[in-house]
Amino acid sequence: MSTAIPNDISDVIEADRNHLWHHMIQHKPFETVDPRVIVEGNGVRVWDANGKEHLDGVSGGVWTVNVGYGRERIANAVRDQLIQLPYFAGSAGSIPGARFADMLIDKMPEMDRVYYTNSGSEANEKAFKMIRQIAHKRYGGKKHKILFRERDYHGTTITTLSAGGQPERNAQYGPYTPGFVAVPHCLEYRAQVSSENYGEWAANQIEEVILREGPETVGGLCLEPVTAGGGVIVPPEGYWTRVQEICAKYDILLHIDEVVCGVGRTGTWFGYQHYGIKPDFVTMAKGVASGYAAIACMVTTDRVFDMFKDNAEDPMNYFRDISTFGGCTAGPAAAIENMKIIEEEDLLENTNKMGARLIANLEALQEKHRVIGDVRGKGLFCGAELVVDRDTKEPVDEKKVQAVVADCMAQGIIIGATNRSLPGFNNTLCFSPALTYNADEIDELTAAVDKALTRVFS
Ligand SMILES: Cc1ncc(COP(=O)(O)O)c(C=O)c1O
User: Which of 48, 72, 161, 308 has the fewest CB atoms within 10 Å around its CB?
Assistant: First the structure.
């Protein structure tokens, strides 16, 4: 750990215990044990308040720090930008805002316009608002319903929870925003039927829901390209082609939530690019600047953009939306350097290579440990689902899943697991290392999982 961090930070622990409310965690245990405080990161490792080193297998806990820690060139770009101009409201442009939009659209040839916000939830809300406004402008308000998929997550606000397919995230926060309707999940390992072509079957279930609701009432469909917190679900063969056909058939806008997959995580710039589909909205956040600054983007097409400027005489005929911190310049300044790093260091290629190694290592663990029922993933975005019995696929008790995570943590290796997602199904170990991982680091990560599985399940 660097000498810049004082040895004794007991005051920090006390201040944390007394006044900080951590995310997604029950605080009762902190009455007797110290809360975890992470004080420094470098490369793919972080150090906690006790000086203990950890290999970070989840890019800052929630698949975010894609280019790794300690990137001085990002920090310098942010510093220079803050001195030049930290902020101006987003009704005006900024130098990094325009430059990053240009770089981004270069990576997304099917898209045209970038709208800046400050979180993934907020980016998703922008797309929802646009779908609703289009419904009002073109369809007398009728085509206002938005479909989402079981197991997907789109954010923490009440409306994004209303579009959330994870009952444990939603419970106790209702009533929800009306007009959001669930479609079935597409996890083949837990297929609802046995079908020769499960991908097509799963996509056809979306059509069933559209027909049940009435196509004239459905304006949008929001999907993760690869479901993240709902269990690392890679949609099966044939799924996306059919989804695109269904959207075209019923004039439904396709919104792809790339908050996790976006900017390299799956080995392409965007997850949807694996499948040759053409979305109407793409939202992204976490990896856009790898957490060096808060930035999220809602990206759309000229077809959508033009609907908001076709009658300049009408004072209501534009997107009447604002995001105060969408005007911060640190975000796009950091995002520019982040994207340059991915290009210069060939990190997409590394993600594909290291992702293949991670999957191969997890499959080798599956041979050894009967508790691993399924291994899945794309790029450096992988999961291993733990089951009591491979035939019945009964999920293991989530306390055991947490015990595996805790054992790895004790070894100095940070992995993740699905958390307060689906009742009884928080049983998938999650891996999302930085896109810079090398082969030794991948092996170090999976060796720790091997030891933890041996200890917890023997
Ligand atoms: C797929 C997906 N969409 C949206 C969000 C919400 O992003 P944020 O936490 O930045 O609001 C998340 C957060 O984990 C996510 O995983």
Answer: 72
One-letter amino acid of 318: Y
* DSSP per-residue string spanning 309-372: TS-TTSTT-S-----GGGGBSHHHHHHHHHHHHHHHTTHHHHHHHHHHHHHHHHHHHHHH-TTE
CA of 259 to the centre of ligand 1 (A): 6
Task: Give the contacts of 450 (CB within 8 A, at least 6 positions apart).
Answer: 365, 368, 369
Instruction: Tell how far the Cα of 137 is from the centroid of ligand 1, in angstroms.
Output: 29
Q: What's residue 5's pLDDT?
A: 63
pLDDT at res. 8: 82
Contact 297 CB / ligand 1 (< 6 Å): no
Q: For residue 131, give Cα distances in angstroms to 49, 105, 141, 179.
A: 46, 21, 10, 12
pLDDT value of position 75: 98
Residue 229 Cβ < 6 Å to ligand 1? yes
Q: Which pLDDT does position 9 carry in this prediction?
A: 86
Ligand 1 pocket: which of 23, 24, 152, 153 to mutate (most atoms within 8 A of CB): 153
Ligand 1 centroid distance, CA of 154 (Å):
5
CA of 222 to the centre of ligand 1 (A): 13
Choose the residue to mutate in 259, 297, 430 for probing ligand 1, maximizing ligand atoms within 8 Å of C-beta. 259
Spatial separation of the C-alpha atoms in residues 332 and 409, rounded to whole Å: 33
pLDDT beneath 70, residues of the chain: 1-6
